Amino acid sequence: PILYSYFRSSCSWRVRIALALKGISYDLVPVNLIKDGGQQFSGEFKALNPMQQVPALKIDGITLSQSLAIINYLEETHPNPRLLPQDAKKRAQVRMIADHIASGIQPLQNLSVLKQMGEKKMEWAQKCITSGFQALEQILQHTAGRYCVGDEVSMADLCLVPQVANAERFKVDMGPYPTITRINKALLELEAFKISHPSRQPDTPAELRA
């Protein structure tokens, strides 16, 4: 497999965690979203992913984009350890939380949107993340065990950790979100989350390395 990734992309991080958890080794091709006006806009990368976004994963003779589609494919082809619970209700909760983050928070504060916001980008990102986290904190109070849904790591957790990192980068006050904070801390102790961390990627700038 070949993963096209950017060290700081939260969507790429989700996929890196999934690959690490499932023990799938891969080659990483960095796509710098800032350098050269954004390497994702090159003709070469557009041919690979017409949406001009990371991540993209070449695997088993196909190229997949969209982090949750990639994670679902890895789940179906490498079922262990599972990232979707066997119980239908819990599985629905995992998908709900993953979608809440992947559709309801992250796209509103991603690089392409922030570019449009100009000087107000920090304020905008904080507003989007805060409103999403207020809802998420409430949801997690009903679903969480050690992790987002019960005590097993799931696709929801793969979305949570990168989004908390975004919140910290945009200086969101995490005080009102004790459940999110607790789960995030527990997940960051797991090896798969450590090795996939933005501070430990081949394309991480020296000053941001762990």
Automatic annotation (TrEMBL):
Its EC number is 2.5.1.18, 5.2.1.2. It is found in: Cytoplasm. Pathway: Amino-acid degradation; L-phenylalanine degradation; acetoacetate and fumarate from L-phenylalanine: step 5/6. Transmembrane segments: none annotated. InterPro entries: Glutathione-S-Trfase_C-like, Glutathione-S-Trfase_C_sf, Glutathione_S-Trfase, Glutathione_S-Trfase_N, GST_C, GST_Zeta, GST_Zeta_C, GST_Zeta_N. Residues 1-82 form the GST N-terminal domain. One of its GO terms (cellular component) is mitochondrion. Gene3D superfamilies: 1.20.1050.10, Glutaredoxin. Its cofactor is glutathione. The keyword 4Fe-4S does not apply. Pfam families: GST_C_3, GST_N_2. GO terms for molecular function: glutathione transferase activity; maleylacetoacetate isomerase activity. Keywords: Cytoplasm, Isomerase, Phenylalanine catabolism, Transferase, Tyrosine catabolism. Residues 87-206 form the GST C-terminal domain. NCBIfam families: maiA. Belongs to the GST superfamily. Zeta family. This is Maleylacetoacetate isomerase. It comes from Oriolus oriolus.
